[in-house]
Amino acid sequence: MQRIKCVISYDGSEFSGYQVQPNGRTVQEEIEKALQKMSKGNPIRITASGRTDAGVHAKGQVFHYDTELEIPEDRWKKAINTLLPPDIRVLEIEKVSSSFHARFDVREKTYKYFVDVQEDIDIFKRKYAYHYPYPLDLDEMSKACELLQGEHDFTAFCAANSGVKGDKIRTIYQAHIKCTGNQIVFTFTGSGFLYNMVRILVGTLLEIGVGKRRASDILSIIESKDRNNAGKTAPAHGLYLWKVRYEEKNEKQRVRV
Amino acid sequence: MQRIKCVISYDGSEFSGYQVQPNGRTVQEEIEKALQKMSKGNPIRITASGRTDAGVHAKGQVFHYDTELEIPEDRWKKAINTLLPPDIRVLEIEKVSSSFHARFDVREKTYKYFVDVQEDIDIFKRKYAYHYPYPLDLDEMSKACELLQGEHDFTAFCAANSGVKGDKIRTIYQAHIKCTGNQIVFTFTGSGFLYNMVRILVGTLLEIGVGKRRASDILSIIESKDRNNAGKTAPAHGLYLWKVRYEEKNEKQRVRV
């Protein structure tokens, strides 16, 4: 039995999210179907770094699974990509130690959020960036980003119906904003993120950007631990799970397929 | 009665082309439906600068139509965009002289063609660029572009089943290639283009890029006036009708709405 680690990209537009559910097309289901075909009908269960919601995209989602299938190494990626629908692509495949776990071993995750700020929506970005055509105070937003960095109890930035168990203390290593032309990109790197956390962070930062709130409000929102005090949840289609990093041990143990 | 000139963008992915046809969703049909709603049910017929095929995009298609409707000028664009589906957007609207004609008055058109040359397809571009992951000789392709410029009989670059009436002499004012990262953009500006002409030009230039043909072959292909001597027709989804320019008289006569 061999454990395989897989990095994938998907366009979330036509998925009801990552995780298998009774109704709606999901990323997990499409991948498991493809792997089952490769495994001559044997069902395969995959384990991802975490879920993504309906409409959320991925540039570097990671999952693992176990297989007894022996496929010549250079053909593996091509073989599975042939079986996958055009909105999911395998980017990297590698054999890893059987101790590697795509969810438990996550060291940090990076999310990006794209905002299209031009007056007329760019229809080619309509599924890939949030159209928010208002003048934004980027300096104030950047100050707020700095305040978000570090270890905090992010209860106020977690969806009220999250069902998250355990504490809501997370560490944001980096939160920053980059503006290029008509596009603003938010980048968040952290130890982990709560349900809807990035989208609520972006919604709150945009409200700071248009002057509804001030950067310093971030501290009192965090302290309040009350979701009602944070901003709106920004829509799913601007969000990308960008990169998942793992413990060094797995980096060393892995063997490129 | 007032003549209106309209510049629109559309994502061709989910259209069976521009022109109304018995089966399939078309750009023209969606716009005429929206205008009919605005005109209290009176049917409106629009006239575009030309057709685009299924899957072809537009960043600056132009059409005109006549209306007796009086709408406050600043509300017109917003009103129609509210009625249009999300894959068509009106970018500019202006009242023009009744002598303006969106097709007959075309002075020049610009098309762009996007090619994604990275090894792994970028799934977010899969409907918006042609994935062609082969090393390309850009110098040789640029030489070929220079040879295409000027007035030529482009019969060899016109789809055999085009039904084009009249001569096939056209003038290409500018043909060039720009490479940025993993993306190559072809730009063609000319007096007019034959059916499938840009896609056949791109297909031929890519064959020059991979060394199947040489730049100098362009001249003999043109001279042959035989479609069989040119390259393959590149797929529709990389192509954008980018800009349509009109005679100066209309530029002067127009009144911004």
Automatic annotation (TrEMBL), chains A, B:
<feature type="active site" description="Nucleophile">
    <location>
        <position position="53"/>
    </location>
</feature>
<dbReference type="InterPro" id="IPR020094">
    <property type="entry name" value="TruA/RsuA/RluB/E/F_N"/>
</dbReference>
<comment type="subunit">
    <text>Homodimer.</text>
</comment>
<keyword id="KW-0413">Isomerase</keyword>
<feature type="domain" description="Pseudouridine synthase I TruA alpha/beta">
    <location>
        <begin position="144"/>
        <end position="247"/>
    </location>
</feature>
<dbReference type="InterPro" id="IPR001406">
    <property type="entry name" value="PsdUridine_synth_TruA"/>
</dbReference>
<dbReference type="GO" id="GO:0003723">
    <property type="term" value="F:RNA binding"/>
</dbReference>
<comment type="similarity">
    <text>Belongs to the tRNA pseudouridine synthase TruA family.</text>
</comment>
<dbReference type="GO" id="GO:0031119">
    <property type="term" value="P:tRNA pseudouridine synthesis"/>
</dbReference>
<dbReference type="InterPro" id="IPR020095">
    <property type="entry name" value="PsdUridine_synth_TruA_C"/>
</dbReference>
<dbReference type="Pfam" id="PF01416">
    <property type="entry name" value="PseudoU_synth_1"/>
</dbReference>
<dbReference type="InterPro" id="IPR020103">
    <property type="entry name" value="PsdUridine_synth_cat_dom_sf"/>
</dbReference>
<feature type="domain" description="Pseudouridine synthase I TruA alpha/beta">
    <location>
        <begin position="8"/>
        <end position="105"/>
    </location>
</feature>
<feature type="binding site">
    <location>
        <position position="111"/>
    </location>
    <ligand>
        <name>substrate</name>
    </ligand>
</feature>
<keyword id="KW-0819">tRNA processing</keyword>
<dbReference type="GO" id="GO:0160147">
    <property type="term" value="F:tRNA pseudouridine(38-40) synthase activity"/>
</dbReference>
<dbReference type="InterPro" id="IPR020097">
    <property type="entry name" value="PsdUridine_synth_TruA_a/b_dom"/>
</dbReference>
<comment type="function">
    <text>Formation of pseudouridine at positions 38, 39 and 40 in the anticodon stem and loop of transfer RNAs.</text>
</comment>
<protein>
    <recommendedName>
        <fullName>tRNA pseudouridine synthase A</fullName>
        <ecNumber>5.4.99.12</ecNumber>
    </recommendedName>
</protein>
